[in-house]
Amino acid sequence: MKLKQRIVLLAILLVIFIFTKVFLIDNLDTSAANREDQRAFHRMMAGLRVELVPKLDHTLQSPWEIAAQWVVPREVYPEETPELGAIMHAMATKKIIKADVGYKGTQLKALLILEGGQKVVFKPKRYNRDYVVEGEPYAGYDRHNAEVAAFHLDRILGFRRAPLVVGRFVNLRTEIKPVATEQLLSTFLTVGNNTCFYGKCYYCRETEPACADGDTMEGSVTLWLPDVWPLQKHRHPWGRTYREGKLARWEYDESYCDAVKKTSPYDSGPRLLDIIDTAVFDYLIGNADRHHYESFQDDEGASMLILLDNAKRSCVLWEYTWK
């Protein structure tokens, strides 16, 4: 082989060698980054894992007192919650001593009092988990399992603004009817071999009851916030009109966000950024029906949003949410 050919061949081999080394290094770097991401993910999941155990290791032996002490203006529960599993276990197992119709709202729910005097909201199962609701984004009944998933997403995002939620099976015949008020009891009926009820709410109808599987009903249980933290309802600045053919201002006015930022309580404090956080949250869970939101009463815009609401476009965002 001539010298010139050897030089060309050597150059080609050198290029291939360099390319291979760079490629391998990149792959190693990527693999290392992936491994670190996986380790970070597993650390996060370990920190979020909740064991529903009855043991309560706290100076306060009442799970309800512990949960009540957690609530402050900017969070419903703290970042470190070793007692969370015991409290959620109590929500899922404590004896029901009273059952009544749900508080105000458009969807079916029941207000339960658990042993120890704790109020909880029971939302019944209306759909199988793989059922797809057709129509408008806000069409259909509430999904009980979405309440559970939303609570844990709130934990993952680090918002800590959602009341505690856990799944629970209740026997309507033995656990609810014997302690139900007349108002709730009057809405019970039997469909086939299943015990059902339709409650009292804006859209509640006798023709559309929630039915158990026999007597056993699956649902979600949401912990009632302490009475010392009364709530105040606000109209959402990015709410829908719910009128066919009529757009809300935010749907056509490109300067609407700037106008909102000049209006109390959005002109100062965390309220506007919290609303945008809520928009991100609702986008992730697919919730498009947030026309009002609630904060703590007389907070002058300083407290968090308690019930997470929907906004359809954003102009600012908390830096930690973006990250």
Automatic annotation (TrEMBL):
<feature type="binding site">
    <location>
        <position position="309"/>
    </location>
    <ligand>
        <name>Mn(2+)</name>
    </ligand>
</feature>
<feature type="binding site">
    <location>
        <position position="123"/>
    </location>
    <ligand>
        <name>ATP</name>
    </ligand>
</feature>
<dbReference type="Pfam" id="PF06702">
    <property type="entry name" value="Fam20C"/>
</dbReference>
<feature type="active site">
    <location>
        <position position="289"/>
    </location>
</feature>
<dbReference type="GO" id="GO:0005524">
    <property type="term" value="F:ATP binding"/>
</dbReference>
<protein>
    <submittedName>
        <fullName>FAM20B glycosaminoglycan xylosylkinase</fullName>
    </submittedName>
</protein>
<dbReference type="InterPro" id="IPR024869">
    <property type="entry name" value="FAM20"/>
</dbReference>
<keyword id="KW-0325">Glycoprotein</keyword>
<keyword id="KW-0479">Metal-binding</keyword>
<keyword id="KW-0464">Manganese</keyword>
<feature type="binding site">
    <location>
        <begin position="222"/>
        <end position="225"/>
    </location>
    <ligand>
        <name>ATP</name>
    </ligand>
</feature>
<keyword id="KW-0547">Nucleotide-binding</keyword>
<feature type="binding site">
    <location>
        <position position="309"/>
    </location>
    <ligand>
        <name>ATP</name>
    </ligand>
</feature>
<feature type="binding site">
    <location>
        <position position="142"/>
    </location>
    <ligand>
        <name>Mn(2+)</name>
    </ligand>
</feature>
<dbReference type="GO" id="GO:0005794">
    <property type="term" value="C:Golgi apparatus"/>
</dbReference>
<comment type="similarity">
    <text>Belongs to the FAM20 family.</text>
</comment>
<dbReference type="GO" id="GO:0030166">
    <property type="term" value="P:proteoglycan biosynthetic process"/>
</dbReference>
<dbReference type="GO" id="GO:0016773">
    <property type="term" value="F:phosphotransferase activity, alcohol group as acceptor"/>
</dbReference>
<feature type="binding site">
    <location>
        <position position="294"/>
    </location>
    <ligand>
        <name>ATP</name>
    </ligand>
</feature>
<feature type="binding site">
    <location>
        <position position="107"/>
    </location>
    <ligand>
        <name>ATP</name>
    </ligand>
</feature>
<feature type="domain" description="FAM20 C-terminal">
    <location>
        <begin position="191"/>
        <end position="313"/>
    </location>
</feature>
<dbReference type="GO" id="GO:0046872">
    <property type="term" value="F:metal ion binding"/>
</dbReference>
<dbReference type="InterPro" id="IPR009581">
    <property type="entry name" value="FAM20_C"/>
</dbReference>
<keyword id="KW-1015">Disulfide bond</keyword>
<keyword id="KW-0067">ATP-binding</keyword>
<keyword id="KW-0333">Golgi apparatus</keyword>
